[in-house]
Structures
1.
Amino acid sequence: MRVYLDNNATTIVDPHVFEEMEPFFVKKYGNPNSLHQFASDTHKPLKEAMQKIYAGINAKSEDSVVITSCATESNNWVLKSIYFEYILTGRKNHIIISEVEHPSIIATAKFLESKGCKVTYLPINSEGIVEAHTVRDFITDKTALVSIMWVNNETGAIFPIEEIGQICAAKGVLFHTDAVQAIGKLPVNVQKANIDYLTMSAHKFHGPKGVGALYMKKGKELNPLLHGGSQMNGFRSGTLNVAGIVGMGKAMEQAIDALDFEMSEVRELRDRLEDALLEIPDTFVVTPRAKRSANTILVSFRGIEGEAMLWDLNRANIAASTGSACASEDLESNPVMEAIGAEADLAHTAIRFSLSRYTTGEEIDYTIEVVKNAVNRLRAISSSYAYAPQGHESKL
C-alpha cells in the first residue's frame, strides 16, 4: 500500500480538474492576447475560470484577482510592492508578520530588513496561534502592512483573521493574508475578513502546480512586480498559463463543493489517526483540534528524530514530512516547535501528517500500524529516550 499524507506540501490533481485542463495543451493552445481564432478559443474558458476563483473567496467584480506562478511569487509581490511604495519613499517604515509565516514571507521580510525596513515578528502562544491583541499592540503610525497567514502550514492552526482584519481596518493599516492552507479547508470570505490582499496556490487544493493568485481589494492595487508584456489588466507580465488558470478555476469550484466533506469526513479520519498516535506514551500534538484545520496533525514522539521516523515511514511507502516542503533541505528543528517554546529534545521530533479528501480509512489504519511499529523500533535504539523520564510532563 502507498499512502500519501503530505497534502500540505502538495495535492493530487483532481481528475475532473485534469480533464478540464487537457484540451488547452494540444487543442486550444492559442495565446489569449493574439488576434485570431486560436486565441478566441481560450477567452470563454478563461473568463469562466476567473469567475470561479472570484466566487471561491467572495471577491467583488471590481476587485482584482491576478494570476501568478504560485503563492511565493504573490507573497513577494505584496511585501516588495509595499516596500517600494511606502518604505522606500519614507511614508512608512514598518511591517508586521508572525514568526511562523511561510518561508516566502520570512525570507522576504529579512531581505527588506537589509534594505532598512523595520520588521516585527509577532510571537505565537502555547497553542501555536497569533493572538489578535498582539497585532494591535505592535501597530504604530509608521506601520505600512500586517501580513498574517490564515492557517499555519505546519500545525494547521487557524489564526483569528477576521479579528485581525478588523483591527487593521480600524487602524488604517493594509492587511495581507497568506491563505494557501485555508482554501478548501475552511470558508474563506475576503469581504467578511476585511482583507486587502490574499494569496493562494492551486496545487494546495487539488489544482495544478505552477499557478497561483493574488487578490487585491479595489483601491488597494499594487504596482507590478514584473514588467514588460503586461497582461491581467496591466498588473502582471508574462503569457497567461491558460491550462493552469482553467485548472485552478475548476479546482476552486471542486474545493468549495467538497468543503463540508473536508470538515466532517476528513476531520473524522484525522481524529482517528490522532487518537491512535496519542495512545503512544510520550507523544504530543500541537494546537487543540478545534483550533486546527481538519486535515493536519503536527506530532512529536519523544526520543525519535523526525528524519528517522520519516525513514521508517518511507520504507513503508507512507509520505509525511518534518516541515515546509519549501525548506525540506534544511534538517533543522521545527520552527513552530521552537516558537512555542518546546523542549529541545522535542523540537527535532515533529512529524506532520496532512490528509486530503482522497485519504481512505484503510490508509489511516495502515499508517497507525506502521507508526506504532516504528516508534517501538526507534525508541529501542534511542540513547536519548533511554534516559528520558518516561511520561513526564512536557513543555508544549
2.
Amino acid sequence: MNNDIRKVIDKYNLTPKRFTIKSNAKIVDDKVVIKSRKNNNLENTYKYLKSRSFDYFPNFIEISDDYEVYPYIEDIYEPREQKAMDLTHLLSLLHSKTTFYREVDIDNVKEIYEDMVNKLDYLYNYYSDLITLIEKEVYMSPSSYLIARNISIIFESIYYSRDTLEKWYEKKENNKNERVVNIHNNINLDHYIKNERPYLISWDKSRIDSPIYDLLSFYQNHYLEFDFDDLFHYYEGFYPLKEEERLLLFSYMAMPFKVEIENDEYKMCIKINKIIDYLYKTSNLIMNYQKKNG
C-alpha cells in the first residue's frame, strides 16, 4: 500500500476490504478513487469548465499536492459502438462550450510545421533504407514481404501528409486569428463513464489548443474498432471543423508510424499489419470525406 492510499484511508477512516488498480488509479471498495497528482493546474481547469457550463466530470472529494480523491462512479453497460457515439457528442459539447479565438502565434505554427516536416523526412528516409535492404534479401521473410507488398501505401501516406501540411501552413500564415478550445487531450473510451449522466475522467493532460488533437487521439486509440467516417461526421454535425483544422488533422492522421524492428517474426508481422491497416483505413476515411464534401 503506497503513502497516498494510506493517507486517504487514515484521513477518511476507511476500512478497506478490496483494492482495484486501473491504470494509475486505485479504487477502494468501489467507494473512492485515488490518483497521484500529475497536473498542478487541475483545479483551475475544473473551475474554467464549470464556468463554461461543462460539468461532465467527477467532482473531486479532495486534491492535495500529492494525490486526488474522487467518488467512485459505476460505469453502466452499453454497447461500445453506442459509447463511441456518446463520447463523440460529449466531445463536440466540450469544444463548443470552451471555444474562443486568439491571435495566431506564428512561432508556434512554425514549430508545428518544422516538427512535422522533420518527422516526415525521417520516415521517408527510414522506409527508403528499409525497402532497399529488403530488396537485397535472397528470400524475404514474411514481415519483409508484408512491407515490400505495401510500401506504396507507406510512401503515398507520407506524400499526402506533407502536401496537406503545406496547404495548412500556407493558410495559417495568412490567418490572423485561430480557434482554440479546452481539449481533454487523452480521448479513450476507457475515460468515458456513463451512469445517470456521462462523465469524462482523467484530465491530467488537458490544455488549451486546437480541437483536432482530441479527435486525433480518439482516432489513433480506436481506429480498428469503430467506423470513424460516421463518428467524424456525427461530430461535425454539432461542431464543424474549419478548413485549416481539417488539413492539419488529416496531415497528422496520414503520417505513418515507424515500425520498430525486432527478432520475433510473429510480433513483427502483427506490428506491420497494424500499420498497414491503419494507413488503408485512414486513406479510405479521408477519401470518403472529400467525396461527401466536394
3.
Amino acid sequence: MRYATGAGLVLLAGAVWSVQGLIIRNIHEAGSWEILFWRSVGMVPVLLVWIGVQSGGRIWPEFRAVGVAGMIGGMGLVAAFSGAIFAFQATTVANAVLLFSASPFFAALLGWLILREHVSRATWGAIALAVVGVLMMVREGVAGGAVAGNVAALLSALGFATFTITLRWGKLANMLPAVVLGGLFSMVAGALVVGSQGQSLAIPALEIAISAGMGAVTLAGGMVLYTIGSRVIPAAQATLLSLVEVLLAPIWVWLFLGETATAATFVGGAVLLVAVVLNALIGARERATAAPVLA
C-alpha cells in the first residue's frame, strides 16, 4: 500500500468517526447505557467478520493472543465508549471531541507511571500546555452547567489511554480482538446498568436501528479503515491525521442542528490541539533520532 493511500484511509476513518456526535444528538429517548448496548451489538459482528477475513478464519487464536492485556484493554474501552456517549448527550459536541483529544497525554502519564516509559522534557511541556487548554474548557463547563459532560469526556479519554497502554504492555500486534472484547464488555455493562435502574433495553425500534447502525458503520467501519491505513503510517502521523474527527464533529452539529460552542471552548480547544500536534511531532522526531542508520 502506498503512503498516500494509507493517509487517505486514516483521514476517512476520522471523518467517519466525526459523525457520531451528530447521530447521538438525534437519539432522544434512549439513555447512554441503552445506546452503548445497541451500538456494541452493531459493532461486534462487523469486527468479527473482519478479523476472520484477516486471519483466514482463525478467529479464536487471534483472541487467545491478546490474553490478559486484551481483556484489561477491553474494560478500558467500556469507559471510553460509555463516557463518550454520555458526553455527547450532556455537553456540546465541540467540548466533548476536544476533550477526547487529551487521550495521548493520559497515555503518556500512564506509560510513565505503570510501564516506566521515558517521557521527554518536550513531552512534559506539551502535557502542561494540554492541561492549560483542558482547564480553560472545564472551567467554561462549570459556568455553563456541563460539568458532568466534561468529566465524562475526560473519563472517556482516560479509558482510551488505558486501552492504549495495555496494548503496549501486552505487545499486541492486532488491536481489533481487544476492541471486540470492549464491545462485548460494553454490552454486559449496558445490560446490567439498565437492569439495575429498573429500565428496559427495548427502546424504540428506530433508535435501536440508529444505534446498531452507528456501531456497524461509523465505529467498526472507521476502526477497520484506521487499522488498514495505519499499517503504512507512523503512529505520530496517524494521530495527527485522525484529528480530522475533532475538526469535523463540531461542523456537522452546527450545519444540521445549529449547535455552537462558546469562545472559551474554542480557545481552550485550540490550546489543547496545539499541544496534541506538538506531542505528535515530538514523537516523530524522537523515533527518527532513535532509528538506526543503515549503511
4.
Amino acid sequence: MPFTFLMLPPQSETTRAWAARLAAAVPEAQVAVAETEAEAQAAIAGADAAYGVPTPGLLARAARLRWLQAPQAAPPAGYYSPELVAHPAVVTNMREIYNDHIGAHILAYVLAFARDFHTYLPLQAQRTWRPRPLDTGVIHLPAATALIVGLGGIGAEAARLLAAFGARVIATDARRTDCPPGVAALHPAEALDGLLGQADFVILTVPHTPATEGFMDRARFRRMKRGAFFINIGRGRTTRLDDLVAALRAGEIAGAGLDVFETEPLPAAHPLWTLPGVLITPHTAGYGPELDERRFGILVDNARAFAAGARLRNVVDKANWF
C-alpha cells in the first residue's frame, strides 16, 4: 500500500541519508524531508507516517497520520504530550538496540563495586598505596543478589551477564511475566518494596513514566541493605538525587553507579561528584558501534510492515510513555 512518510525537523546528515535509503528500500513509501518547521507544517497534513518529534501545532494538522516513529528508545520528558497521547496515530520507539552495550555498562559498575574500585580509583588519583584489610570491601558475586528493576531487553541482558558471574538475579517488571535466562525469580512492579532489602545491587533500567517519576526516594533507599549499591542507567528522573545524597551521607547504602540524572549535565557543584562510593558516567551507557544502523533497521522494518498492514515493532503505550 503506497503511503507518504515525512521526516520531521531538525535534520542531520544521518536523517537525510536515511530518507534516501528508506525510499530505495521501501518503494511504497513516498519520503519527504522537512528541513524547517514551516516545511513540516505544509507537509504534515498529507503525511500517513512520520519520524521525529512532532510539536502540538503539527499534531493539530496531522489528520492523516497513522504511525509515528520516535527517534529514541525512551524519548525525553515531554515527548508524549497530551496532544500526542490523544492523537490516533500509533507510536513506535527504538528500544532493544542498546541491550548489549548497556548490559555491559551495568556489569562494569557491578564488577567495579564488587572489587572495591570505588575505593581505589580516588587513591590512584592521589598516588596513594593503601590496600584495605584482607577480605574487606569485596563482594563475592556467587553469594550476592542483584535486583533488576525493569526486565525489558536491557534488564534481561544484564541478568544473563550477572548470572554468568554467579550472582542470583531477581527482578520486577510492570508487564513481563516470563523469566528470561539468568533470572531466578520475577515479580510484579508492586513487589519492589519487599525485595529491596534482599539485594546487594539494585539496578534500575526502567524508563521515565508517570509511574516511575521520582519513585526511588529516601524511603526506598532506607529499605535497601546498608552495604548495597544502587545503579541507575534508565532515566534520571526516576531517582530523587537529593534523597540519594542523603542516603549516601547517612550510610544507608554503600554507594551508587549513575549514568543518568535528574538534571543533565550534572551541575559541577553537585555533591555527587565528590561523595565517596559514587561512580559517574555522563549518560554514555548506550554508547557503542552500529547504533545508527540498528535505528535504521527498525525504521525500515516498520515502514515495510506499515505498507503491508502488518504489526509494527516496538509499539508504545502512549499513556504510559513506553
